[in-house]
Amino acid sequence: MDRLNGPLDSWSYSTFSNFQKCPRRVYLDKVLKEPKPELIVPEGKTEHPLDRGIRVHDAAEAFLKEDCELIGELQSFVLQFEMLKYLKERGEHQFVIEDKWAFTKDWIPCGWSSEDAFLRLKMDCFLKTEIEAILIDYKTGHKHGNEISHMTQAQLYQLCALLRFPELQHVQVEFWYLDQKEIMSIPFTREFGMRFLGKFDEVGKRITSEIHFNPKPSANACRFCPFGHQVGTDVCASAYK
Ligand code: SF4
To answer: In sequence order, which residues have a C-beta less than 8 Å from that of residue 86 and are 6 or more positions away?
Structure first.
């Protein structure tokens, strides 16, 4: 792998998201591989939100791939999931559930485990006709307050779809907010969507050439950080106190 001078040789959307909040967090996690604390179930809940998110994603996958029942948390999207299953069974679309995509630093699709993989991202559900595609991401978290972050994620994911399938002319990214029963749908044309290539090329190169990983302590970032003192292991000496 031709490194870009930093200790990280690849990135993902969540790495980028955490890097924006605090580069030191990425350093502790991805470079030093500091252990994270055990997930503590919040008071009044029966499971941690991260565990719940994994369980709900697994249940959506099982509904579409196997003949499992739709669990309670997915019932508010019963029509949408039934429609996906119908389309999958008709076989007229290229239909992918829980796929893993990777790209080299020159934005050429490559294998997930390839040592040239520079960017990795996971698809919840992807449907494609000849020139159009819909890319669906299930969300168990809040929409409110995450609009900008999710819009950035949509820009990256549609870009990867356009690069992976050069025949595509339109990509629609849909975020299904399962708890809020809302869908945020963002359409991109090829002409518009490809304009994000320069932005994400710069993002990837910035993350993988970073050597300082300076901390960006703030009440909000440190409060939820696995290396801070509130919910974390308290190994970060720069945490906001
Ligand atoms: S505790 Fe705060 S400063 Fe330290 S890594 Fe986490 S977010 Fe960054």
So the answer is: none
| Site residues for ligand 1, CB cut-off 6 Å | 22, 24-25, 28, 215, 217, 221-222, 225, 227-228, 236, 238-240
97-147 residue pLDDT tens:
999 999 999 999 999 999 999 999 999 999 999 999 999 999 998 888 889
Ligand 1 binding pocket mutation candidate from 21, 222, 235 (most atoms within 8 A of CB)? 222
Q: Whose CA is nearest to atom 7 of ligand 1?
A: 222
Q: Which two tokens stand for residue 147?
A: 């609009």
Atom of ligand 1 nearest to the CA of 222: 2
Q: How far apart are CA 83 and CA 87, in angstroms?
A: 6
Q: Report the residue among 218, 225, 240 best suited for mutation to probe ligand 1: largest number of ligand atoms under 8 A from its CB.
A: 225
Six-digit token pair at 220? 């909000």
Give pTM, 2 decimals.
0.93
